[in-house]
Amino acid sequence: MIPFSPPRIDDRTVKAVEEALRSGWITTGPRTKEFERKLAAYCGVDHVIALNSWTNACELVLRWYGIGPGDEVIIPAYTYCATANIVMHVGAKPVLVDVRDDFTMDPAEVKKVVSPRTKCIIPVDVGGLPADMAAIMEVAEHCRSFFTPAVNLRSGKTNPQLALGRPLVLSDAAHSFGARIKGAPVGVQADITGFSFHAVKNLTTAEGGALAFHMPERFDEEGMYKWFNTMSLHGQNKDALAKTRPGAWRYDVEQAGYKCNMTDLQAAIGLVELDRYDPDTIPRRKWICERYSEAFKNDPRFIVPLFVDGVNDGSPLRESSYHLYMLRLANATEDQRDRVIEAISAAEVSVNVHFLPLPMLSFYKAEGHRMENFPRSYGLYSQEISLPVYYDLSGEQVDIVVNAVRAAVGEVLG
Ligand SMILES: *Cc1c(COP(=O)(O)O)cnc(C)c1O
């Protein structure tokens, strides 16, 4: 059986976690802070906060920006449910838009639905390929003339909506840590970028996430970091580490915060993962993806995914983090695709579909979202099959997957 994406856990990871366990400090502490500093250096930003998941981190972003009932957040129809769920959690309305042929949110569609109620835009880097951030930032700027900030809002010392004066652009980079736009790492394009370190993601901490801040100059990012740090720990103004100083027991709570901090056990895994990410993880994933593409690209029954885009000033416009291998079956119906998956699975190869578009999920269907309004999302979804990509997948196993896919397609589609 070839699994879909087991994590890379080896002696080095185990040793790092053991050291953390034996260090006497297992919750948020020195390892988490070191992980944050190294993530910030990697992304080329000044401040990163590491939290317990993409979901809780990005929900906290919506709360920081004061988003709630009456507000709208624009998201692609083609994404994982987390992107939409956080909007529901804060009581706002997710406004869905269709995607381009490369699976990422279409900026032209975003422009059609922006309104004075739009408070946030969340593009998604599906499979690791960055969305068209330049065009999306342009749409956000275009909203300045009609943006209506909440007046009684305070997050820390500022009213962020008044200070920004347009919808916040929060990038769902759950798949795209290490991807690049014009040579720059993902993290310096949106206002805030959210990463996921869930077990199946490129870089894992078992569960975890992080936010990279890249706000306009006038924002006090140090103050933002403090706000997020405090709000991830019940709104308590002293964390556990600060309270260990003799006599420093007294603390205060000014707001009912949340509980979504990262532990040093998670950070210990993350530090090992980050250290070998560029030299080892990404090249291996790229090698696997290219081997698949070599096998499928000249066969008209398949459409291979896009990993690198046109060249600009010597660097590719976009380069993926090689998170998913999203193969498409040209001309297949949804039902045929499903039968191809059954046949691949019978050959002991695990595959997946990324994603069921939001309007196909009962909850979002009941909310009134209709699949027929997002024809490109449906078209992509109905022909998509994600193939296994993980560090320990061998070239021989890649060939087994290729043969299983070819045989299954031959059986179902002729
Ligand atoms: C995994 C994923 C998330 C959620 O990440 P968690 O860390 O599990 O909360 C959000 N968006 C996308 C596109 C994802 O694939």
Q: What is the second-level CATH architecture of the largest domain?
A: 3-Layer(aba) Sandwich
Cross-sheet strand order for the largest sheet: 1-9-8-5-4-2-3
Hetero groups: pyridoxal-5'-phosphate
The CATH topology of the largest domain is what?
Aspartate Aminotransferase, domain 2
Percent in helix: 25-40%
Largest sheet: 7 strands, mixed
Gross morphology is globular
> Average pLDDT across residues?
97
Unreliable spans are none
Backbone structural class: alpha/beta
Alpha plus pi helix count: 15
Number of strands: 15
CATH superfamily of the largest domain: Type I PLP-dependent aspartate aminotransferase-like (Major domain)
CATH class categorisation of the largest domain? Alpha Beta
N/C terminus separation: 25 Å
How many domains make up the 3D coordinates? 2
> What percentage of amino acids are in beta strands?
5-15%
| SSE order, one letter for each helix or strand | HHEHEHEHEHHEEEEEHHHHEEEEEHHHEH
Cα gyration radius (Å): 22 Å
Give a verbal description of the structure.
With about 425 residues, the protein is of the alpha/beta class. It has two domains: about 260 residues, Type I PLP-dependent aspartate aminotransferase-like (Major domain) (Aspartate Aminotransferase, domain 2), CATH 3.40.640; about 140 residues, Aspartate Aminotransferase, domain 1, CATH 3.90.1150. It contains 15 helices and 15 strands. The strands form four sheets. A seven-stranded mixed sheet has the order 1-9-8-5-4-2-3, sandwiched between helices. A three-stranded antiparallel sheet has the order 7-6-13, with no helix packed on it. Helix 4 links the parallel strand 2 and strand 3. The radius of gyration is 22 Å and the shape is globular. The relative contact order is 0.16. The model has no long low-confidence stretch (mean pLDDT about 95). The site of pyridoxal-5'-phosphate has 14 residues, from helix 3 and helix 4.
